[in-house]
Amino acid sequence: MADRRSGMVQSMGYANPSSSVVSRAVAAAAANRRQSSMRAGRASKQYSVSAFYSMAAEQDVEVEDDLAQAQRILRDLKSKISTQSKKNFVLERDVRYLDSRIALLIANRMALDEQNEVASHLEEHDDQGDEHYPDHRKMQQYGNLFFLLQSEPRHVASLCRLVNLAEIDTLLQTVMFTLYGNQYESREEHLLLTMFQNVLAAQFETTTEFTSLLRANTPVSRMMTTYTRRGPGQSYLKTVLSNSINGLLEHKDLNLQINPLKVYEEMVNQFEEEGRDLPPGMPRSVTPDVAAANPDVIAIIQPRLIMLMDVTNRFLETIMQSLDQVPYGIRWICKQIRSLTKRKYPEATDIAICSLIGGFFFLRFLNPAIVTPQAYMLVDRLPGKHPRTTLTLIAKMLQNLANKPSYAKETYMIPTNPFVEKNKQRINRFLNDLCEVGDFYESLEMDQYMALSKKDIVLNITLNEMYNTHALLQQHIDVLAPKKDDHLRILLTEAGSAPAQVPRKQNLPIVLPLFSRWETPIQDLTTALMSENNITQNDIQYMEAKAIFVQLVRSLPYFAKKPLDLHRIAESAATSKDAQMVRKGIKVQDMLKELEAANVIDRKDNYALLAQEIKQELVHLGDLKDRVMQESSSLESVYKTILDHNNYLKSQLESYKAYLQNVRIQSSGGEKGSKKSVGIGVEVEHSGKSSKSKASKPQILGPYKFTHQQLEKDGVIAVTNVPESRKGNIFFTISCPMPGTFIIELHYKGRDKPILEMDLKLDDLLEKQQDNIQVLDLEYVQLSVVRTLHLLNKTFVTKSKNGIFS
C-alpha cells in the first residue's frame, strides 16, 4: 500500500507521504460528527465505514422505491451527458479543422490529393479494425498505464504544460472526456481538479509578469476553457443566462450602439435610405473624435447609455444571485487562483487578485456564452444585429467590471465608468465569495481507497487516444519521469514504442480495464478499514444493522409513518413472502441480539440510539429524493441542449461533405481550364469540345414548402420586414435542380409567380460562413447562414437515396 499512498500524496502536494490513506479523512469527518447527537466515542472510529454504508443506502440496487428509481434516471442522464459531451468535443475539433481546410478549398488553393485527405476526416467507422486491436498483454500494459495516469494527476498536469498548442486539443479530449470523463463522479472530478492545481501552480511559478497571468492563449488557458464546456458548466450557463439573453432577443429593434463612429454612420445611412441629401457640414465619413463631438450623436447616445447600463445591471444581478448554482469545480479553480496569487505575489491587492479570478470566471466562462449564445445553444435563433451589439457591449462592461478598466483602444466605453464604479466593490465580494468552498482531499482519499476494492474500473477510450497519449508521454519522458525507478518510466519502457495512429475507420472505441501494477486490490473494504482505524467488529455490526433497517423501511414504507419499532420491523421482514426480505429480517434479528449482548444497544429503550440514527438516515434520503428529482429536471434541459448542439455540428459536417463531393466531381478527369458539371447528364465541356453524357437526367429534388412562421420559429429567418398581418400568407419553396445548387422562391398566397427568386450555391453559403457573414439578404427577409445550411442538409440529404451531392 505504501507505493499508492506515496504517489497519491505527492500528486496532491501533501508533506507526509507515510500518513494513512484514510486517517485524515476519518479524523476530519469525525470532528464534525462529534457535534451531532452521536456518542463522541464511537464517532471518531465509525465514520469512515459508516460513510460507506450510507453511500450504499443511497444507491441500494435491492430497493425498489421512488428514490431508487429517481437515482437510476439521474445516473443514466449523467452518463448520457458525459458521453455526449465527448462526442461534441470531437465534432467541434473536426469542424475547426475542416473550417480551416475548407477556406483553402473555397480559395481554390488546394490540390485534389489534399481534398481527399480532408474528406477522409468525414469517413465513418467500420467494423474492420481487428488488426489494430491490442492483444491481451498490451491491454494489461495500457490498463496499468492509464490507472497510473488517472490516480496520479501530476503526470497529466506536467504533460499538459509540455505539449504545444497544436497537440493540446487531442490531449484535452483524452483528459477531460476519457481519463476523467465521468463528469458527475466525485473521484474522477476531484482527480481532474487536482491536476488543475498542479498546472496552475506551475503556471504561476513560470510566469514572470503578473499582468500576463492566465491571459495568453496557452495550453493552460485552453484547458480552463475546455473545462467550463463540460456538463456542469453548460448546465449553469443554460440555467442562469438563457432567460436573460432570450428576453433581450425579443427586443430586436432595441438599438443600444454607443460607439460614436457607428452611430454617425447610422445617421448617414438613414439619410440615404430616405433619399435625402446630407445636411451641410455633415460629411459622409469622419474621424472617431469628430463623430464623438457631433451634437446629434451625443443626443442619441445619452439615453442609450442609461438603458445599456440598466440592462447590464440586470444581467449582473442574475449572475450574482446564482452564486450557489456555480459548479463546485469552477469555484474551486477560482479558489486556487486566489490562493496561488497570494502566495506568489503577497503584495498583490484584493482588486488585482479579483481581476485574475474575473479573468477566468468572466473571460473564459461567462462572456463567450453572452457574446455568442448560439454557439452554447442558449438561444433558439441567431441574434439580430442590434441584440448582437448589445450582448457584446454587456460582455465588455462585465469584463471591465471584473478587471481594471482599460480604454486605450475603445474610448467610447469610458462613459460606462459609472456602472463600473457603482458595482466594483459588489463584484469583488462576489468573486471572493466564489472562492469560499471546501476542499475535497479527505473525500478523495476515501474515493481512492474505495477504488482499490472495485473490480470494474474501466475507461471507454479509442485506439488513437491510447496511442496518442502513449506517444506524447514517450516524447516527454525525461521530464515526466527522469529516474529509472519512476513507475511511469517503468510502464513506458515495458510498453515499448507507441503504435502509429490508425485510420479513422479503424479508430474504434474499446473498454480498457484499469488496475494498478503496484497495489493489491482490497477484497474486503470494511475489514481493511477496521485494521487501519481500530474499528471493532461491534462497530461494523452496528452500522451494517442500521443500513439493513434503512433498506427494510424503504421496502416497507408504512413503518416509517410512526415511531420506529425495530423488533417489529425485523419480525415483519422475517415472516414476509419475499425470500430476500426474509434473509434480511432474520439477519437483523440476530444482529439486534448480538449488539444487545455486547451492551451496544438496549431493548428496554426500544433500541433508541439505533432507531434515532435510522430515522436521521431516512430523513436524509427523503431530502435526497427531492434533490435528485430537481437535479434530473435541470439536467434534462442540459442534455437536450447538448443533443441540439450535436445535431448542429453533424449538419455542419454534412455541409462540408457536400462541398467536398462537389469539388471532387468538378476536379475528376478535368484538365486545367476545362469545365465539368456537378450534375449528371448535363452538358460537359472538355478542351473546347461539347458532348452529351449518356447518363440519365439529374435528379431534381423539391420543391419543398416552408411557411414564414415555421422558418422564423426555427431561426432560419433571422430578420424579417414582412408585416405581422401578412406573415400567414407568405411561404417559401426550395428545390435542388443539381447537386450543390438550390433555388429559393418567396411566394404570396393567391399569386402564380414568386415575388422573389434566388439561385443559391452551397459554395457561396460556405464562403459567407468563412467570412463570418451571418445573414443572407433576400430583400424581404434575412436568412441565418448557419441555420440555412442546416435546413438544406436536413431537407435534401435525407430526401435522396444516394444523397443529393453524390
UniProtKB/TrEMBL annotation:
Cellular component GO terms, alphabetical: cell cortex
Domain of life: Eukaryota
Lineage, broadest ranks: Eukaryota, Fungi, Fungi incertae sedis, Mucoromycota, Mucoromycotina
Coiled coil location: 60-87
Gene Ontology molecular-function annotations: GTPase activator activity
Organism: Umbelopsis vinacea
GO biological process annotation, one example: negative regulation of Ras protein signal transduction
Name the record gives this protein: Ras-GAP domain-containing protein
Gene3D superfamilies per record: GTPase Activation - p120gap, domain 1 (1.10.506.10)
